[in-house]
Amino acid sequence: MASSIINGKEIGQEIRKSVAERVAQLKEKGVTPGLAVILVGDNPASQTYVRNKQKSCEAIGIFSELVKLPQEVSEQELLEQIRSLNNRNDIHGILVQLPLPKHIDEDKVIATISPEKDVDGFSPVSVGKMMLGQDTYLPCTPFGVMKLLEYSGIDVAGKHAVVVGRSHIVGKPMGQLLLQKDATVTYTHSKTPDLPSITKQADIIVAAVGRPNFITKEHVKPGAVVIDVGINRDENNKLIGDVNFAEVEPIASHITPVPGGVGPMTITMLLYNTVQSAENTLLQDK
Ligand SMILES: Nc1nc(=O)c2c([nH]1)NC[C@@H]1CN(c3ccc(C(=O)N[C@@H](CCC(=O)O)C(=O)O)cc3)C=[N+]21
């Protein structure tokens, strides 16, 4: 059974088209959605991601502003930059590119972003609302995975979903969103004994461990859906996922490739959240 390869680039493009239409409607009302991206230091990977985010904004008419700060910037200065962006009417979304240098308290930085502008969905307020099923900005990567499943016609209700990884930005919220759609969710992680015995029971596996080719055919039940959130780089700087694609593809029913799977969806949902935030300001003005 060869699997159907889920094309995140194509699904992302389709969603971006409808987001672009909403941007056009906002502009008719005199509002240009604006995203501020804060980049600290000069990590080459972060620079590439940030450039991709800016290009994607431009392509659909979202204004994007890059705030570049040196590696040695003080936490105080970074917090002041965020507060000033919180107060700007032309900025509807604020994203602080992670990871941050070690001398800066990431939790404090994220908590300083106004929840109204937290288009990453990382702040304590956003996370709390998500847990309660309230209206909020959903974290872009798990949100993107839910859209991939939906657009691929995969109904998660009643399915057993196994999430591998428990990070604040992917694993934990991923399980929540699946649970909200009536999946039965199992969380697994680096301290889970005999992982294959658990993942073998999954109808849907979401791999978000950050280890290249970690999920092999021994982990996968034939016919399972396999979503690869991994973005590892090999020695030649080539992008590789957490799933051994060559091994797993023949037995899965659906699988996401890396690149071209979850990655493009993360950016798509960032654009989506930013436009949502701009629309929300219009509702508040009324
Ligand atoms: N505050 C914050 N928010 C983030 O959302 C955030 C972050 N910090 N820090 C870093 C990670 C990583 N991330 C990616 C987004 C898109 C691709 C992506 O588009 N990948 C393409 C390929 C890109 C390439 O070839 O390099 C793909 O998978 O097809 C990858 C990774 C967002 N992150």
Automatic annotation (TrEMBL):
Domain Tetrahydrofolate dehydrogenase/cyclohydrolase catalytic: 6-120
InterPro entries: Aminoacid_DH-like_N_sf, NAD(P)-bd_dom_sf, THF_DH/CycHdrlase, THF_DH/CycHdrlase_cat_dom, THF_DH/CycHdrlase_CS, THF_DH/CycHdrlase_NAD-bd_dom
Residues annotated as binding NADP(+): 165-167, 231
Pathway the protein takes part in: One-carbon metabolism; tetrahydrofolate interconversion
Molecular function terms, GO-annotated: methenyltetrahydrofolate cyclohydrolase activity; methylenetetrahydrofolate dehydrogenase (NADP+) activity
Family of the protein in this entry: Belongs to the tetrahydrofolate dehydrogenase/cyclohydrolase family.
GO BP terms, alphabetized: L-histidine biosynthetic process; methionine biosynthetic process; purine nucleotide biosynthetic process; tetrahydrofolate interconversion
General function of this protein: Catalyzes the oxidation of 5,10-methylenetetrahydrofolate to 5,10-methenyltetrahydrofolate and then the hydrolysis of 5,10-methenyltetrahydrofolate to 10-formyltetrahydrofolate.
EC annotation from Swiss-Prot or TrEMBL: 1.5.1.5, 3.5.4.9
Matching HAMAP family: THF_DHG_CYH
Record field: catalytic activity: (6R)-5,10-methylene-5,6,7,8-tetrahydrofolate + NADP(+) = (6R)-5,10-methenyltetrahydrofolate + NADPH; (6R)-5,10-methenyltetrahydrofolate + H2O = (6R)-10-formyltetrahydrofolate + H(+)
GO cellular component, as recorded: cytosol
PROSITE patterns, alphabetized: THF_DHG_CYH_2
Record keywords, A-Z: Amino-acid biosynthesis, Histidine biosynthesis, Hydrolase, Methionine biosynthesis, Multifunctional enzyme, NADP, One-carbon metabolism, Oxidoreductase, Purine biosynthesis
Organism: Lysinibacillus telephonicus
Protein known as: Bifunctional protein FolD
Domain Tetrahydrofolate dehydrogenase/cyclohydrolase NAD(P)-binding: 139-280
Pfam families: THF_DHG_CYH, THF_DHG_CYH_C
SUBUNIT field: Homodimer.
